[in-house]
Amino acid sequence: MPSRLRKTLASILVVVTGAFAASPTLSAEPLRILVPKFSGEREVTTAVSMTVYFEMLKAFGSPSGAERGAWILYGQDESNISSHKDAVDAASWPSVRADIVVWGHATRYGDGVVIDPRVTRTPVSRQRKEQPEVLQAIFETPAGEYDLSLANSAAFFDLEPFVLSNAFIEQSENYSKGIPIYPSLDSDKPGEYTSNVVYFLEVSETAALVRYDGAKEGWIKFPALPREDLSMAYFGQGLIHILRGDWRGASKSFTELNEFSSLPNSMRVDANIYLGIAQYKLGLDGLATFRRAAGLNGFDKDAVKFFLVGLLLDYRQKREPALLDELATNIEKHQVLFSTSDPWFSDLRKLTAQYRQ
Q1: Which of 5, 6, 163, 220 has the least CB density, counted as fewest CB within 10 Å?
Q2: Residue ranges of the domains in the chain?
Q3: pLDDT over 80 at 82, yes or no
Q4: In whole angstroms, what is the distance from residue 31 CA to residue 101 CA?
Q5: Rounded to whole angstroms, what are the CA distances from 78 to 2, 28, 35?
């Protein structure tokens, strides 16, 4: 647990395109993201974790009707987080209460540093009053109501490692004085530094307009990543979009992530689950996306559940018998994943049988 956490409130009240309204319910429950200092090479971990911190901020760069603001906390001291359990423990601290922890390790290798990033979705996030990522699947029948709504239960995401060159590290700010604030985007040198609460007023891909130390305003310039295809950035931002209920942002992040050829299979499964949720939330058909997730790993229980529910949702809309036939076939195929006392799977079978009568 970091001994000091600098709190940064990313409350996007004004953006380039103008002000937008926030949901009163959601705005009362701001998202909390913890980016502790990465473990490993001491001379580079601050630069690495701050680079990750700024990448997560980019998820707030577009307006969302579900905007609720966010506290993004970063650790200035060694975090000693080396496992998912450690991340959960750090996030559960009363003064932190983080929904997401982006953490990892830095290891010197050759002429650079290997960064091994991970994301933990904490139990705190499951306690939120609003759960926008839940896919609503409630079916009314003459025999009664069946609630098959579900959310991705995954809590730990092992992201793709990447390398930062020594040149990148040497050019990076060490943040020993705090976050550098530039008087304008054209400024080559920061006017001052701050380690106090910073309010983000505008966020783009390269910089953010901030208010700090009272009424002062200035710019934070984001460091450019050495690669554009870093799954850490797309997955982390996509998960933030999901928990904010920003479905267009989530769809964009996970669609682009799916295009990475080197993406680990487990991450691609989760990316397709979240993409399918976003598609349904946008009023689009996400069945093909859920089918792809289940096809990537037929033993992933979440992927299979979303695929089965997707078939039901599509049948309710289209009333095509072939969808029911496919559903019945896949229920039998995947029943080994569910216990005989699983109420969700039992209701799924009952509902399918009623539809087939």
Answers
A1: 163
A2: 5-130+157-221, 138-154+236-356
A3: yes
A4: 11
A5: 6, 31, 12
CA distance 103 to 312: 38
Contacts of 329 (CB under 8 A, 6+ apart): none
Extract the tokens encoding 121: 């979705």
Instruction: Summarize the confidence of residues 124-138 as an average pLDDT.
Output: 92
Supply the angle between the helices 287-296 and 301-318 in degrees, to the nearest 10: 150
Neighbours of 17 (CB within 10 A): 9
Which pLDDT band holds residue 46 (cuts at 50, 70, 90)? confident
- Alpha carbons within 13 A on the beta-carbon side of 32: 24
Res. 81: pLDDT tops 80: yes
The CATH class given to the 138-154+236-356 domain equals: mainly alpha
- Could you tell me the pTM of the whole model? 0.88
pLDDT tens sequence across 256-305: 999 998 889 999 999 999 999 999 999 999 999 999 999 999 999 999 99
